[in-house]
Amino acid sequence: MRAVVVEEFGVLPRVQQVGEPVVGAGGVVVKVEATGLCRSDWHGWQGHDSDIVLPHVPGHELAGTIAAVGEGVRGWAVGDRVTTPFICACGVCEQCVEGNHQVCPHQLQPGFNYWGSFAEYVALPFAEVNLVRLPEGLDFDTAAGLGCRFATSFRAIHQVGRVEAGENVVVFGCGGVGLSAVMIAAALGARVIAVDTNPAALELARSYGAADVVHAGPEAVREILELTGGGARVTMDALGSNEIVQDALRALRPRGRHLQVGLLPAGVQLDVSRLIGQELEWLGSHGMAAHSYPEMLDLVASGNLRPQELITRTIGLDEVPGALDAMTAGTPAGVTVIRPQGITA
Prior knowledge:
The protein is 28% helix and 23% strand. It has 345 residues and is of the alpha/beta class. Strand 11, helix 9 and strand 12 (252-260) form a beta-alpha-beta unit. Helix 5 (146-160) packs across helix 6. The mean pLDDT is 95. Keywords: Metal-binding, Oxidoreductase, Zinc.
C-alpha cells in the first residue's frame, strides 16, 4: 500500500510503498477513505511525542470501511462504514470500566503508538470498544474530522467545560480544534469570542458562530476584558503555547474555567497564586470515548452541529508532506482532509 513515511524527525516525509497491516485478534483493518491533517501530526513529525518509533506513518483521525475482521470481534463485518476515537482504549481496565476510555492507561493511538492512517489501510485494536458505526447520511470526509478535533472539542466544551447558554467563552487558536469549539459553544447558546493571528481563520470563526473576533497580540486581553465586562467565564487554549495560556488565564473573571486542549511540549509557567486567589479552574481534556459519540452524532444529524462546514481543503497522499511542512509556519484556517485512495469528483 501507499503511505506517508517519516524516516527522520523534522525532515520532510515521503510517500512510499509499504506492507499492508495484518489484522490482529480483537482488532480490524480499515480501508482509509478519509483522514484529517491535524496539528498533533505535526508535533509527532517534529519529535515531540516519545511514543513514536521511526520509521513511522502518522495519522490518527480517520473514517473508512472495514477490510478485515480479527478473531474474537463480534458485531462488525467487512464493508461496515466506521470511524474511531484517536484513543483506542482497552475496554477492561478500571478507567474503561468506569467509562473513562479517553484516559485508559493501556490505550493505543494510531499514528503515535503504531503506524497510522496517512495510508491506504490502517489497523485498529480493541475493535468492539472503539469502533463507531457511521450513519448512512454521514460522508467519510466529515466523519474523519470527528475522531480527534471535533470530538475533542465537543467533550471539552460540553462535558468537561460545562459551557452553558449565555456564558462568555473565549477560544484561543482557530485551527480545526478551535473552530470546532467555536461552533459547538455557539450551538450551546454561549457568546463566543475567537482569537487568532490569521484574519482568514477569524472570518471562518465568525461564520461558525463567533459573536466577536480578536486579533492575537499585546492588546488581546484588554479587548476581551472590555467585550466581556470584566472577563470570560470560560477560556480555551486550542493551539498550545505558554503565551496563550497566560493570556487565557488573565482573560478569565474570578471563578472562571480554563480548558487546556492544545499540547504544550515546551511546558508552561502557571501563576498558581492567581489560580488560588481567583479560584480559577484549570481543566485538561483529552479526546472522547466511542460510547459518547451518539449525542454528538444526533446533533450532527439534526443540523445543530455542522462539522462538514469546517472542511476547507481536500488533498491526496502526495500533497501531505508539503501540507505538513506548511504547518511549521502556523495552523491553516479550517480542516484539511486527506483521501488516501485518491481524489475523486
